[in-house]
Amino acid sequence: MGMAKLSEDNMSFLLDAIKKFELDKKFTEQGVEQGIEQGIVQVIVQGVVKGRKDELVKTVTKQLTKRFGVLPTEVTKKIFKANLDQLEVIVDEIFDFSTLEDAIKHL
After folding, report:
1. Where do the structural domains in the chain lie, given as residue ranges?
2. What is the percent of the chain with per-residue pLDDT over 90, rounded to a whole number?
3. Is 33 exposed, middle or buried (CB count within 10 Å of its CB: 0-12, 13-18, 19+)?
4. Does pTM top 0.85 for this prediction?
C-alpha cells in the first residue's frame, strides 16, 4: 500500500489549516493566560477592599464606642453595611461629632 499523493492545492490547504490551528491555539492560550491574570488581580483587589472595610468597621466601632458608649445594635448593623466612603467620613470627622446621631447621619 502506497501513500496517497496530495495535489499542490490540497497540500497548500492543509498547511494553511495547520497554521490557522496553531495561531488559534496560540490566541486561546494567550486568552487563558490573560483571563487568569485578570482573575488573580480581581481577587487581590477584592481582598484588599474587604480588608480595608473590615479595618474601617473595626475602627469606627471602637471610636464611636469610646466616644459615645455602648452602641445600639441597629447602629452596629449600619456600620457593618456601610461602604468605604461612609466609614472614612466617620473616621475623619469623629472629633467633630457632638452626638452619636451626628455620626449616624453618615451611615
Report:
1. 8-104
2. 57
3. exposed
4. no
